[in-house]
């Protein structure tokens, strides 16, 4: 493997270590022993949940191909996963507010374990069921756990600023360190021990089962709006009204969809961008490098959120602009650097430049996750947190399905250009959110609920 990859990985590792070791009292949040115990318990569970997710990622496509399915059939399976997340995930996520977030987290574990079990079958219908289950699980992973954490944090009376510490540590571990270790562990199971492409899915099921046991033994239940007279349709309507009546929630949803849509598109594009002529690139090592860049971002985010200035709403404008510029690199190099005509070989000069840009983008992703979590905790009403968060994922899932369906219809530079425009739009919306962040809500959730209650007898 070329020295270039090791230099980039080593430089990122040194930066992460330097940032973590150089933190002073201004960069650290002083907390209580009770909070530290609560935080560590959540971080263990979240890390196990993310390990269950990361172990599967690199081997889904590979497993389907070993079963003899072509690109078209595999594409349909992936679209089924995102479609399931959009349709069923929204309903299941909404039930979390009414039936309990702890119960929803346990449902995530069970659903994802069942999805892992289906990978043992080479039958297309069984694999399709597995993708549908996986889509539902993904929606729960990105809503139920955060909803439980915010509600439990507030219920125990911990300071609001301490929440940002849990968020940044969760991303540092779950989306950084755990991702790297999961990649290495999956490689050990499949390549070193030759256990086959199903082995990572079995390992994922084990981690999920361990996490579920911890949830069942140490987590208490909390709810959004447990009122008996509120059916699912009323809950959807209430969440839609909350988004429509509060510009800050609507802006937050649009920002999240634009960024995450670009991020998921990037996942499909980075491999062909770095190897347009079938260059021999170390996919696993590059993936680990991206995750290290994400850890760098979450380290920076924890420093930024530990201070009162700059505010999250302020620095995220810069993050979106930088991420937009980083995804312009494939377009710029396409014009400025002469394309190589040689098939195979090592990564090109243009590819090396793009890799540095992609690492910058992943660092922005590392800043984005804890920062968007903090903003969601501030602006989304507690009563319908899971419902609204899953509403945010509807346009995201539609966008990713459209991209997957048309991935071969457009040149790769057009796709990157589209992502760059979306990220720049996110920075404009973030600027608007910053401008109105101190304004009171148009109508709070309690007032809307009271109004709906008063209106019900009239409907009868």
From TrEMBL:
Record carries keyword Transmembrane: yes
Primary localization class, coarse: membrane
GO terms, biological process: monoatomic ion transport
Gene Ontology cellular-component terms listed: plasma membrane
Single GO term (MF): molybdate ion transmembrane transporter activity
Segments traversing the membrane: 6-22, 43-62, 74-96, 128-150, 170-189, 201-219, 285-306, 318-337, 349-369, 390-406, 412-429
InterPro entries in the record: MFS_trans_sf, MOT2/MFSD5
Location of this chain's protein in the cell: Cell membrane
Mode of membrane association: Multi-pass membrane protein
The entry's keywords: Cell membrane, Ion transport, Membrane, Transmembrane, Transmembrane helix, Transport
PANTHER family the UniProt entry points to: MOLYBDATE-ANION TRANSPORTER (PTHR23516:SF1), SAM (S-ADENOSYL METHIONINE) TRANSPORTER (PTHR23516)
Name of the protein described by the UniProt record: Molybdate-anion transporter
Source organism: Hibiscus trionum
Source taxonomy: Eukaryota, Viridiplantae, Streptophyta, Embryophyta, Tracheophyta
């Amino acid at each position: 493997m070329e020295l270039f990859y090791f230099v980039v990985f080593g430089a990122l590792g040194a930066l992460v270590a330097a940032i973590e070791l150089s933190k002073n009292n201004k960069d650290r949040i002083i907390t209580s022993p009770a909070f530290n115990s609560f935080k560590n318990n959540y971080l263990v569970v979240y890390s196990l949940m993310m390990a269950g997710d990361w172990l599967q990622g690199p081997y889904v496509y590979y497993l389907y191909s070993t079963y003899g399915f072509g690109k078209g059939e595999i594409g349909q399976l992936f679209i089924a996963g995102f479609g399931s997340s959009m349709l069923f995930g929204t309903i299941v996520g909404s039930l979390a507010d009414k039936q309990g977030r702890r119960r929803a987290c346990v449902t995530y574990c069970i659903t994802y374990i069942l999805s892992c079990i289906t990978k043992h079958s080479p039958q297309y219908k069984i694999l399709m069921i597995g993708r549908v289950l996986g889509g539902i699980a993904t929606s729960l992973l990105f809503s139920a756990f955060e909803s439980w954490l915010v509600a439990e944090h507030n219920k125990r009376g911990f300071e609001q600023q301490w929440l940002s510490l849990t968020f940044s540590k969760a991303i540092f571990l779950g989306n950084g360190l755990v991702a790297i270790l999961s990649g290495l562990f999956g490689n050990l199971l499949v390549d070193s021990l030759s256990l086959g492409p199903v082995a990572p899915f079995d390992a994922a099921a084990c981690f999920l089962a361990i996490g579920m046991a911890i949830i069942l033994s140490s987590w208490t239940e909390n709810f959004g709006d447990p009122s008996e007279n509120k059916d699912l349709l009323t809950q959807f309507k209430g969440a839609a009204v909350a988004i429509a009546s509060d510009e800050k929630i609507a802006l937050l949803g649009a920002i999240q969809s634009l960024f995450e849509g670009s991020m998921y598109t990037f996942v499909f594009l980075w491999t062909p961008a770095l190897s347009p002529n079938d260059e021999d690139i170390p996919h696993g090592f590059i993936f680990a490098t991206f995750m290290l860049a994400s850890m760098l971002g979450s380290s920076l985010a924890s420093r930024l959120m530990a201070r009162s200035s700059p505010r999250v709403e302020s620095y995220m404008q810069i993050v979106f602009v930088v991420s937009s510029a980083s995804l312009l690199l494939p377009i710029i190099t396409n014009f400025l650097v002469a394309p190589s005509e040689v098939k195979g070989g090592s990564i090109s000069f243009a590819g090396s430049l793009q890799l540095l840009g992609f690492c910058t983008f992943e660092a922005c992703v590392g800043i984005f996750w804890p920062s968007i979590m903090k903003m969601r905790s501030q602006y989304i009403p507690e009563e319908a947190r899971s419902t609204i968060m899953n509403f945010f994922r509807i346009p995201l899932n539609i966008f990713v399905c459209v991209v997957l369906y048309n991935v071969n219809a457009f040149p790769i530079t057009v796709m990157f250009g589209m992502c760059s425009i979306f990220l720049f739009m996110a920075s404009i919306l973030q600027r608007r959110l910053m401008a109105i962040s101190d304004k009171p809500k148009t109508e709070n959730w309690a007032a809307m609920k009271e109004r709906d209650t008063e209106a019900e007898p009239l409907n009868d």
